[in-house]
Specification:
By secondary structure, this protein is an alpha+beta fold. It has helices spanning about 1-10, 30-45, 60-80, 90-105, 110, 130-140, 155-170, 175-205, 220, 225-240, 245-260, and strands spanning about 20-25, 50-55, 85, 115-120, 120, 205-210, 215, 265, 270, 275-280.
Length: about 280
């Protein structure tokens, strides 16, 4: 809701076709009240609003819910011919994401997401902590409803926010969110440099690029160090809007290129011959 009011405050600096979009996952009984509040505020601020809804389910994992939201917002963006999607993710979300991904074994490239801007996604509040947002909301009287599922520890992210971060902070005697966010910012500098240089190398390796498919020079790829190969393959899949689900898949994919072995990894496929290998996102 704070992001909505900021959009109104700075609307003269924004495109004219600002549209508010909200999705009801159908999980919570009180979700309709949330939707009503968003619609009412959007109308009061004279923004058009689009509401989406899904069939009720007793439980969905976090990744499924995230993918549903992203698909809905992308559909709305195309529908209204917008060029950017703003979400209200803040600094606490960034810290929780980093801890969550590090716990799953992510390295530098994976742990440092999300970004302030990653076309078409924009997160203008990403450097602001929740207490600062709350102070702004209270001072200006911005209406608000707490998502009741945020208080449940059924989800991994909630466990990090409600249990791990407070325990960690109490143990060390200071707010670890601030130091973790500082580390996240430092890591992001290195990631951006690696991505920039890696994408330049990837362009040099590319024989052909079409949507969801990349054809690369195998011998030139193998001339780089193992570490560079891992980064380049990661960037190849990412550039196709694909996802590598684990470090093991990444290692296996590079081994397939070396051994000239085709393989289907589920969300991407690899075809290899002596001179060329093809990465295709499924």
């Amino acid at each position: 809701m704070v992001l909505l009011h900021l959009a109104k405050r700075f609307e003269h600096h924004l495109p004219k076709n600002v549209v508010v979009a909200t999705l009801n996952h159908g999980i919570r009984r009180d979700a309709l009240e949330d939707v009503k509040l968003v619609v009412q505020c959007a109308q009061n601020l004279e923004f058009p609003v689009i509401v989406g809804s899904l069939s009720p389910k007793s439980f969905c994992d976090e990744n499924t819910l995230r993918n549903q939201r992203r698909a809905f917002l992308l559909d709305v963006m195309n529908q209204v011919k917008a060029d950017r999607i703003w979400t209200a993710h803040h600094a606490d979300d960034a810290v929780e994401t980093m801890v969550l991904r590090l716990g799953r074994g992510a390295g530098l490239m994976g742990a440092t997401s999300p970004k302030l801007y990653d076309d078409p996604w924009a997160k203008p509040l990403l450097t602001v902590f929740s207490e600062d947002i709350e102070e702004f909301r209270t001072r200006l009287g911005v209406p608000f409803r707490e998502d009741s599922t945020n208080l449940l520890t059924d989800y991994e992210r909630n466990k990090i926010r409600l249990e791990l971060i407070p325990f960690w902070s109490e143990l060390l005697g200071y707010d670890v969110r601030k130091t973790l966010f500082s580390s996240l910012a430092s890591m992001s500098v290195f990631r951006e440099f690696v991505e920039e240089q890696g994408l330049c190398l990837l362009d040099q390796l590319t024989v052909e690029r079409v949507p969801k498919m990349l054809k690369l020079r195998r011998k030139a790829f193998l001339s780089y160090s193992r570490s560079a190969q891992l980064v380049l393959f990661y960037l190849a899949v990412k550039s196709l809007k694909g996802e590598i689900r684990s470090r093991g898949h990444l290692e296996d994919a590079v081994n397939c290129v070396s051994k000239i072995s085709d393989r289907d990894f589920g969300n991407f496929a690899l075809k290899v011959n002596k001179e060329i290998f093809v990465v295709e996102v499924l």
